[in-house]
């Protein structure tokens, strides 16, 4: 009996010792089957479009199909929780924007996931500027002129935002604080109706991502007054930033990147990141992304990890300072 127990104990110990080696050996061969990339928004939007363009390039580089799967809702929280609880094997990844992982934690303290502890950074993918736009016939031609109008008409100038706590909302808050003015924020479920209302005169202005205002600005129907990015957008290089116009602190890029469940093997992370960097440096993909209004922005996993922590801290401070509450 004693001999039998010793044999069982030895077998269990051997199995526990062997499993990590087998798991890492499998990861070294990654990928051996299709990969799912989860997007937290409906099909057809900017994030989904960027993810699908990237996935099409990644497939041949990885030797496996990369499938984009949409799981919208709760400002990205539904998709984030799904990926956080997925098997950490590199076959379920999260193509996420800033909202789900850097804004939601401060906006929704009851989240069922932690963006730092429950995920492993794979790499940044794209970024785009948020622009303050008005109808082409509107009397203000810069953010400084609009701020002057707002001081003369406090709370009367209406500015559309794409949801409470969205990057557009936070950009507006930073602009108001830097200018010492108050606008009337008008929340929308998306940018499409807001653009229509600006064009129709029901709304004075809009904070919108470049992809959502690109066509109307190029057609001359909307004019961009300022960009919230640190540097001028390479899509609209003639539009000055808020900082250039004297509004220090009014900075906030929108971005998207790929995360994996925590404890995903480093070799799988490295393999997928290498494919991402190669794809995002491909001239054909870069041209298509630029045409849609976004800028390729590849990074290493380590760079993305540091940036994610910075963004989570920064937006948390902004949300608490301005008393922004989710509705």
Give the proportion of residues in helices. 40-55%
Instruction: Provide the domain count.
Output: 2
Q: What spatial form do the alpha-carbon principal axes imply?
A: globular
Say what the CATH topology of the largest domain is: D-Maltodextrin-Binding Protein, domain 2
Average pLDDT figure: 91
* Strand content range: 15-25%
Side-by-side strand order of the widest sheet:
2-1-3-10-4-11
What is the helix/strand order?
Answer: HEHEHEHEEHEHEHEHEEHHEH
The structural class is alpha/beta
From the alpha carbons, calculate the radius of gyration and give it in angstroms: 23 Å
Describe this structure in words.
Helix 6 links the parallel strand 6 (158-161) and strand 7 (184-187). By secondary structure, the protein is an alpha/beta fold. The strands form two sheets. It has a six-stranded mixed beta sheet with strand order 2-1-3-10-4-11, sandwiched between helices. A five-stranded mixed beta sheet has the order 7-6-8-5-9. The chain folds into two domains: 24-128 and 254-321, 3-Layer(aba) Sandwich (D-Maltodextrin-Binding Protein, domain 2), CATH 3.40.190; 130-245, Periplasmic binding protein-like II (D-Maltodextrin-Binding Protein, domain 2, 3-Layer(aba) Sandwich). The chain has helices at 2-28, 46-62, 77-84, 98-107, 143-152, 167-179, 191-200, 210-218, 266-280, 283-292, 301-321; strands at residues 35-39, 66-70, 92-97, 119-128, 130-135, 158-161, 184-187, 205-209, 222-227, 254-261, 295-296.
């Amino acid at each position: 009996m004693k001999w039998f127990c010793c044999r069982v104990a030895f077998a269990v110990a051997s199995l526990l010792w062997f499993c990590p080696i087998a798991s890492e050996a499998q990861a070294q061969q990654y990928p051996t089957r299709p990969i799912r990339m989860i997007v937290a928004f409906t099909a057809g939007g900017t994030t989904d479009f960027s993810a699908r363009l990237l996935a099409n390039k990644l497939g041949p580089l990885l030797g496996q199909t990369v499938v984009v799967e949409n799981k919208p809702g709760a400002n990205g929280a539904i998709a984030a929780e799904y990926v956080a609880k997925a098997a950490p094997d590199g076959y379920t990844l999260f193509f996420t924007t800033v909202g789900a992982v850097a804004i939601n934690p401060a906006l929704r303290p009851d989240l069922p996931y932690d963006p730092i502890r429950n995920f492993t950074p794979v790499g940044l993918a794209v970024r785009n500027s948020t622009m303050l736009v008005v109808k082409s016939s509107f009397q203000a031609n810069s953010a400084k002129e609009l701020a002057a109008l707002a001081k003369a008409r406090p709370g009367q100038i209406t500015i559309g935002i794409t949801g409470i706590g969205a990057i557009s909302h936070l950009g507006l808050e930073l602009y108001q604080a830097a200018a010492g003015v108050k606008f009337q924020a008008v929340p929308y479920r998306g940018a499409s109706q807001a653009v229509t209302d600006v064009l129709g005169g029901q709304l004075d202005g809009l904070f919108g991502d470049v992809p959502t205002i690109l066509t109307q600005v190029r057609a001359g129907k909307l004019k961009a007054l300022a960009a919230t990015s640190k540097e001028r957008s390479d899509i609209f290089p003639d539009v000055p930033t808020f900082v250039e116009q004297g509004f220090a602190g009014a900075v906030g890029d929108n971005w998207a990147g790929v995360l994996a469940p925590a404890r995903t093997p480093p070799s799988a992370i490295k393999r997928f990141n290498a494919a991402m960097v190669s794809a995002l440096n491909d001239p054909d993909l870069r041209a298509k992304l630029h045409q849609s209004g976004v800028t390729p922005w590849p990074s290493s996993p380590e760079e993305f990890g540091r940036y994610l922590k910075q963004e989570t801290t920064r937006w948390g401070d902004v949300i608490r300072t301005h008393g922004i509450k989710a509705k």
